[in-house]
From TrEMBL:
Keywords: Cell membrane, Membrane, Transmembrane, Transmembrane helix, Transport. It is a multi-pass membrane protein. One of its GO terms (molecular function) is transmembrane transporter activity. CDD domains: MFS_MdtH_MDR_like. Residues 20-404 form the Major facilitator superfamily (MFS) profile domain. The lineage of its organism: Bacteria, Bacillati, Actinomycetota, Actinomycetes, Kitasatosporales. Pfam families: MFS_1. This is Transporter. It comes from Streptomyces toyocaensis. SUPFAM superfamilies: MFS general substrate transporter. GO terms for cellular component: plasma membrane. It is found in: Cell membrane. The chain crosses the membrane at residues 21-47, 53-74, 86-104, 110-128, 149-167, 173-191, 224-245, 257-277, 350-370, 376-396.
Length: 425
């Protein structure tokens, strides 16, 4: 591709999105750039504090449990209090709890504060996704979600590289830097982002119009809960890249450096391919995309059973990374299409919970299967789960509602918020 063609492709990828989206995008990027704690938490507990690997696993599980619990509560807050207040509360609480965690020395206190960090850090996700759906036009949402996912991975790649250097100097510095950068995110939200919640949400008028949404409403939405279940299955599969893969490579005689080399392919491909792949898929049938990405994910991990060298492991990572690039924005866009305007927070909270639960279940599943039957069974199960998820998406997404079919109230609210849009950014 020529330089002019590359510039045109970049311009088309970022044009037409409102300024509020870009401030939200910057907030996401800054937050991920400071994501040091998740990277070196296990090393901090085992090497610096001298605790056992089992204790480090317990702390990680409590952190994940906090995220599970906060998902639904944050979804309700997003609808009732608004997107902006929920973001401010979540990010401020995250910054404070991470700073406190850096000073904890007692094992019970560390575990308790790690649980609070998990709750606070996960609480912002339903609000971010609901706000993005509010301020971006339906036809641009896949592109917007893809850009946000790209920022998450770019920030994670940079922070992962920096975490090692910071840990060599001071683990406490890592905690404090992440706390400070999370506070910067809260400042960006406070100064630059207006509330985007459609007017009348959870009001008597909304109830009278039949637009009030409760968690019971979400649970009764059969098709959406089916998507949540399929999302859980796919999340369990993707988690194996960071759980089952390093264990399996270690048992096969490969070094941590070998695993690092193989998994680095994931981050590099997402940063390089996320935007061009999104340009290719953004106007295509999400049903076909989710079926294809589910099969790619399942069989990408399934092929790991035949890997005997770092190069082949890296090749399998390429396969399931392509599935991840397609699946992430498409699935988030599907959640928005299935969510009523006045219940986006609760629906996004339920969707977020599926990934949080998967983060708890996946370690237990991978460890049990590898210990009792071997890694080959784990990769075979991934292929089966991917196939089941693909069939499920194919069945559930028949007669998918039109993405432009939003309520008049929702469109009016977006205009009333007076969020300016520009043709290019």
């Amino acid at each position: 591709m020529s330089v002019a063609g590359l510039r045109r492709a970049v311009r088309e990828s970022v044009s037409g999105l409102p300024p509020a989206f870009w401030w939200l995008w910057i907030s996401t990027l800054v937050n991920r750039l400071g994501g040091f704690v998740a990277t070196f938490m296990a090393l901090y507990l085992t090497l610096d504090r001298g605790y056992s690997a089992s204790y480090a696993g317990l702390v990680a599980a409590l952190h994940g449990l906090g995220g599970v619990i906060s998902s639904l509560g944050a979804g309700v807050m997003t609808d009732r209090l608004g997107r902006r207040p929920t973001l401010l509360v979540a990010q401020t609480a995250t910054a404070l709890s991470i700073a406190v965690l850096g000073f904890m020395r007692d094992p019970v206190a560390i575990a308790a504060v790690a649980f609070l960090v998990g709750m606070a850090s996960n609480a912002s996700r339903p609000a971010v996704q609901a706000m993005m759906a509010d301020i971006v036009r339906p036809e641009d949402r896949i592109r917007a979600f893809s850009l946000n996912y790209w920022a998450i991975n770019l920030g994670f790649a940079v922070s992962s590289a920096g975490a090692g250097f910071i840990a060599e100097v001071s683990y406490l510095a890592g905690f404090l830097i992440e706390a400070g950068m999370t506070l910067v995110c809260a400042v960006v939200v406070f100064v630059k982002l207006p509330e985007s919640r459609p007017s009348g949400e959870d009001s008597p008028e909304a109830s009278a119009a039949g637009e009030s949404v409760s968690l019971l409403t979400v649970l009764r939405d059969g098709r959406f809960m089916g998507v949540v279940g399929l999302s859980f299955l796919i999340a369990v599969v993707f988690q194996q890249g960071y759980l089952g893969l390093p264990v399996a490579m270690g048992e096969a005689g490969f070094t941590p450096a070998d695993f690092g080399l193989a998994i680095a392919v994931n981050g590099v491909l997402i940063v390089v391919l996320q935007l061009p792949v999104t340009r290719f898929i953004e106007h295509r049938d999400p049903r076909h995309l989710l079926v294809a990405s589910s099969l790619l994910a399942g069989y990408g991990f399934g092929l790991t059973a035949f890997a005997g060298s770092v190069a082949v492991f890296a090749l399998t990572v390429c396969v399931w990374t392509l599935a991840e690039i397609v699946n992430a924005p498409t699935q988030t866009g599907l959640v928005v299409r299935l969510s009523p305007v006045h219940g986006r927070g609760r629906y996004q909270g339920m969707y977020t919970m599926s990934w949080a639960v998967a983060a708890l279940v996946a370690p237990l599943m991978s460890g049990f299967v590898i210990d009792h039957w071997g890694a080959e069974w784990l990769w075979g199960m991934c292929a089966v789960v991917g196939t089941v998820a693909g069939l499920g998406y194919g069945l559930l997404m028949r007669r998918l509602p039109d993405e432009t079919a939003e309520t008049v109230a929702g469109e009016g609210a977006r205009a009333a918020e007076a969020v300016p849009e520009v043709k290019a950014c």
